[in-house]
Amino acid sequence: MNSYTYARTLQAVLIGIAMIGSATLARADIKDYGFQLVDKTVKKGDAIISVRLVHKPDGKPVPDAVIFATRLDMAPDGMQEMATKIAPMPSTEPGVYKFKAAVTMEGGWQLSLGAKVQGEAGTVENKLVIKATP
Length: 134
Ligand SMILES: [Cu+2]
Description:
Layout: H1 3-26, E1 33-37, E2 41-43, E3 45-55, E4 60-61, E5 66-74, E6 79-84, E7 86-89, E8 96-103, E9 107-116, E10 124-133
Parallel strand pairs: 2-10
Antiparallel strand pairs: 1-3, 3-4, 3-8, 5-6, 5-9, 7-8, 9-10
The structure holds copper (II) ion (CU).
């Protein structure tokens, strides 16, 4: 290896290290992730609720998260004890997570979600409010 090649190789390695360093920093905070409702309203009855998990700084969807806590109750209408069944469903869109739920009453429902993101420490925890219409 002559000295020119050596210098170029060293430069490439240093650039590589700098890029890895900034990528790690950019992905370091679990608070950068959040759920968003695909639709803010559902019809009363058997409903499908879709949420998108995004990395907020760049708005990118986050696929392959492990969703481990879900609860749907009427806390927004003062009925926190009124919870309903909710079950995960398969989704074909990366970063979108679907649930089947028995929405038994019109009004405000709170969806509580927890998630683990690949390669991140900590837990994403969000509460989203959905409006059930007749
Ligand atoms: Cu209710």
